[in-house]
Amino acid sequence: MRIPARLRPLIEYGVITEVVRPLLSGKEAQVYLVESGGELRAAKVYKSTQERSFRHRSSYTEGRKVRNSRDRRAMGKNSRYGREQQEAAWNTAEADMIRKLHRAGVRVPKPYDFVEGVLVMECIQGPDGGVAPRISDCPFTREEGIEVCDQIIRQIVKMLCAGVVHADMSVFNVLMADDGPVVIDFPQSVSAASNPHARKILLRDVANITDALRFGRAPQALRYGYEMWDLYENGELDENSVLTGKYDVRQHQVDPDILMLEMQQVEEDEALAEMDDEDFDY
């Protein structure tokens, strides 16, 4: 295939030896299947600001530290140099985050290189030996889906223990590897301690997963986000913390958006039940 311009320097440097084919295209980047280090790997090429569809980026960058004082001032003034540095920092964030989470034992692709704004990482294999599919494309049985949901919730707990909230968690950003789910896409991830929106973002992340992998379970029994944040805030959360999903929202501060989602889920369940009754009404 024709070599993308952004990958040519990596071939010149010997970081990759061949571009096999495009793999995935998302809001933030284009991912290619490449040969590197004698094996197939994934090369993530970040899109420019004009090409991206990710919105409200400022909510995700709050709390991120910029060590260079000149860069920090330029970013604050939104000068041309400042915008260039913001772009570089946004692209670098994922490489830094994947390294951190990989060290913490979170199931993420193993990072290898970050060169010229391109992240080269492990290519996750699926159950059939090919490239792993997104969870959204997997036809799970109810039992399988519930188990996968529990496994993803456990990875969210591990991330929170490492002080990280994914901030774009969904079944589109989790791959189904041959040995279980692997979380991907971290450029927008936030610090649980420093970002003032971290709690709200975590609740939304968890709700995205439990909504997609509910399989008829009552939404009120899947309030893992509230539960894990309370444990985190009280310094009691660890990788093995037992979560029940049960949380009395009447006694705590709740997020209206999450409650609205739960109400919609209940209405959908009732509508489906009515449809089933009509199907058997002779």
From TrEMBL:
What Enzyme Commission number(s) appear in the record?
2.7.11.1
What terms describe the molecular function in GO for this protein? ATP binding; metal ion binding; protein serine/threonine kinase activity
SMART domains from the UniProt entry: RIO
Keyword vocabulary terms for this entry: ATP-binding, Kinase, Magnesium, Metal-binding, Nucleotide-binding, Serine/threonine-protein kinase, Transferase
Q: Which InterPro entries match?
A: Kinase-like_dom_sf, RIO-type_Ser/Thr_kinase, RIO_dom, RIO_kinase
**Which residue stretches does the UniProt record annotate as biased composition, category Basic and acidic residues?**
62-74
Region feature (Disordered) = 54-82
A Pfam family it matches? RIO1
UniProt superkingdom: Bacteria
Q: Which reaction does it catalyse?
A: L-threonyl-[protein] + ATP = O-phospho-L-threonyl-[protein] + ADP + H(+); L-seryl-[protein] + ATP = O-phospho-L-seryl-[protein] + ADP + H(+)
Record bears the keyword Secreted: no
Q: Which family does it belong to?
A: Belongs to the protein kinase superfamily. RIO-type Ser/Thr kinase family.
Name of the protein this chain belongs to: non-specific serine/threonine protein kinase
Tell me which species this is from: Bradymonas sediminis
